[in-house]
Design goal:
277 residues, Rossmann fold, seven-stranded mixed sheet, alpha/beta, single chain, globular, 10 helices
């Protein structure tokens, strides 16, 4: 990976974190969320994944979670990150995070999956179980639109998503559309189960009004990982709408998993007191 051919953010000092963004946007969409992570004492490395945010797209036939995971591993090498990271992925980035933890376990200390793709089933309107791959494209678009305008945080979410999504759509619409099919067909249950069996800690966070990654999909991922989900209030884009809450949730997960506080930068005494009690 040559310097200058991809776009990324490098924010803060302390506990190393790899943050992987969602589909159709880039790391710029999560500026406030990344800043909040940096404020609790993390060094956040957040690349624009291939095909998004100015980073070159993958070659035809390479659009798969293993290829994205390999790219993320090479990114960490290029960034000079030698110690294991906490990998945090949102939505599509959550699926990539699963694959990174599976394919490169030596690079991952902990995986935090926020509204991750990779669960292949959902409950239909009639209550029957059906495959996520059968969800039509128009329904994805409808539910994304509903998610973006849901709640009182629309003024925060829409500008952030537009900033990341519009350049991708204008510059690389075919790539963005093709990636929808990768997400629709995602089945990462076996990979996540092996991650858990290998001893890598996994935490899954889901928001109670998420229409893009429904409850049935995240339940399957939780079973594969052998964990219960942490449920927060909000829609699919909750961590964009509420970056401070996102940092609080991450900090709680880190402390619950016994991460050494000396790895953080600065004095976190007040922060921990504010967020954990």
């Amino acid at each position: 990976m040559e310097e200058g051919v991809f776009s990324y953010a490098d924010a803060g000092k302390g506990l190393p974190v790899l943050f992987l963004h969602g589909w159709g946007v880039s790391h710029r969409t999560y500026k406030s969320a990344i800043a909040s992570l940096a404020s609790i004492g993390c060094r956040v490395l957040a690349p624009a994944q291939p095909g998004f945010g100015g980073s070159p797209r993958l070659a035809a036939g390479e659009r798969s979670f293993p290829v994205y995971a390999e790219w993320a591993a090479r990114f960490l090498d290029a960034a000079g990150q030698k110690d294991p990271v906490t990998v945090i992925g949102h939505s599509f980035g959550g699926g990539v995070a699963i694959q990174v933890a599976h394919d490169f376990p030596e690079m991952v200390r902990l995986a935090i999956l926020c509204n991750p793709v990779g669960g292949p089933i959902r409950c239909g309107a009639d209550g029957e179980i059906e495959l996520m791959s059968r969800r039509p494209l128009w329904e994805w678009g409808q539910e994304l639109g509903t998610d973006l305008i849901a709640g009182s945080s629309v003024a925060k979410v829409l500008p952030a998503v537009a900033e990341g999504a519009m350049p991708n759509l204008l510059r690389n619409l075919p790539e963005v559309v093709k990636m929808v099919n990768v997400v629709r067909r995602a089945n990462l249950l076996a990979e996540l189960e092996r991650v858990s069996l290998a001893g890598t800690p996994v935490s899954i966070v889901w928001s109670d009004r998420d229409r893009l990654v429904p409850h049935g999909a995240v339940t399957g991922l939780c079973r594969a990982a052998g964990v219960q989900s942490t449920v927060v209030e909000g829609s699919h884009t909750w961590l964009i709408a509420e970056p401070e809450m996102f940092a609080e949730v991450v900090l709680r997960v880190l402390v619950d998993h016994g991460v050494d506080l000396e790895l953080f930068s600065g004095d976190l005494g007040d922060i921990i007191g504010d967020t954990l009690h």
